[in-house]
Amino acid sequence: MPKPIKIIIAGAIGFAAILVVVVIVSSMITRISDLPPDRVRLPQQALTPEEITVTAAPQADGTLQVSERLIFDAPEGADRPILWYLGGESIGWPAGDGDVPRYAVMPRASEVSARELDTVEEWTKNDPVEVAQLNVTRDDSDVDDLFYDDVGYEFANPHPPGENVMWTKGRHVVDVSYVLDDVYLNVEGHELFVLPLQFPSGSNEAPSIRTVSLEAGGPIRCLPDNMEFEPDADCSGLDKHRFAEGGTRLTWQEDMTSSIGAIGFAAPDTLQTEPIPVYEHRRN
After folding, report:
1. What SS3 state is found at 22?
2. Positive or negative, the Cα torsion across 19, 25, 30, 33?
3. Which of 71, 131, 168, 229 has the fewest Cβ atoms surrounding its Cβ within 10 A?
4. Exposure of 50 by Cβ count < 10 A (0-12 exposed, 13-18 middle, 19+ buried)?
5. What is the mean pLDDT of residues 187-199?
6. What is the spatial distance between Cα 235 and Cα 5, in angstroms, rounded to a whole number?
7. Do 189 and 42 touch, CB atoms closer than 8 A?
């Protein structure tokens, strides 16, 4: 075979190989940038460095029972507690001139508790084994305007006297539970439960995945905090999100620039109370 033809054939083969590599890499990048499809839970050791799964259960008296599982990686010598700040969350305001009322949910938390679980796969997935009951500290010393100031909670793992290390290096699984009141609201004719998305944070060293599942009621609607109040069925303000289970399960990747501070959902038929009027704060 003449040498020029060999060169052409070799070049074509090389180009085809490069094209195949490009296609494979492109598909991998696409899969990485998007959230994975809903799947069976992996072992805790295989989960992302920071992940929060939340279950919200509306109660007949208008309260919301919330349970969260926080998974995070602690670096060497970690001595900071898990933090949670709960306060007024804006859920939009109507357009207009002058003194415009701004809407917000003003939740009150009670029965707040937390515990650390063992990271052995069989225990944390199906039959959690408690490692330690965490100390819960509530701080409202700086609150002078509930709409702007948050009540602070710290979840601290007890450590021996004289030691500063609160979390051993590696993966940790923590369960937090609490009851929210004043979250069943009537906003411009919408009667809905409102759940602020101010969940406890762990290491904050990696983009985190949040999942909210409803035990009753729904479907989930996002409540933007910077526009006229209108529940958003598409949750367009959340980055890389997906719905499942008929709209009663929402997963998204946390984005600090998101304008979504809360989600709302219709109450179940078993509810035995009326919603309260939404809180309005008039801007000066």
Report:
1. helix
2. negative
3. 168
4. buried
5. 93
6. 57
7. no
